[in-house]
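Raw record, unedited: Succinate dehydrogenase membrane anchor subunit
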Amino acid sequence: MSAAPTTTTSETGTGVFSRTRARISERTLRTDRWWIPPAITVLGLAAFIIYATVRSYARDHYWVADYHYLTPFYSPCLSTACVEGSSHFGTPFGDLPAILPLGFVVLPFLLGFRLTCYYYRKAYYRAVWFSPPACAVAEPHAKYTGETKLPLIIQNAHRYFFYVAVVVSVINTYDAAVAFHGADGGFGFGLGNIVLWVNVILLWAYTLSCHSCRHIAGGRLKHFSAHPVRYWFWTQVSKLNTRHMALAWTTLGTLVLTDFYVMLVASEKISDLRFIN
């Protein structure tokens, strides 16, 4: 009788090294530059995280008093440490320690919304955790437990982060609306208003194109014909959903652009181009 086969890495591993896959010892047989897309993803996400972190903790040049421009990184600003006029919803919190950014109330939820987003999961699973880094490229992990344990079990809370993101989008819309303010106190309109509104519109598009929003719109319905309003909303969200990846990246860019523009105007590095007043 022959001896029992010895268990090998190929039988206990994951991905291309799992027992059901062909016995190939190489990590990959691909000869193309498969590593370029993951590398670009890492660079893009890292650039945004570094910029957003620095600006969130800077505590300066986030409010233009003359035109009521408020950067989204500081909205809502609810601390007594906020610059006068920038607290559109009062100041229920006192002075904050340096470890907390002035936008501490919503920033963790927005971070959670992005981190648990279906597209961003795919992006950083591949580019950061190499799970897997590319098609037909072995991942370095010995086992796969899915989203059943910490920290990945938090991914299941995406719908609840979505609810908060909707509220924040409403707040950002209000910020953009009150920014139609002139230096003399009346109505005003400048380039900053365009920047703020483009950012708000794209943020709404990204938020509503979320997979959770699509599920909320059309879920648990047996007959769309009995719910024409929800069916219409579901079809519109579904159209947006096909552009969710593009909107995920675009809104990172518009957030940086909006904050950078407000910072330049607030620090008097440039003057806002005014069309009215």
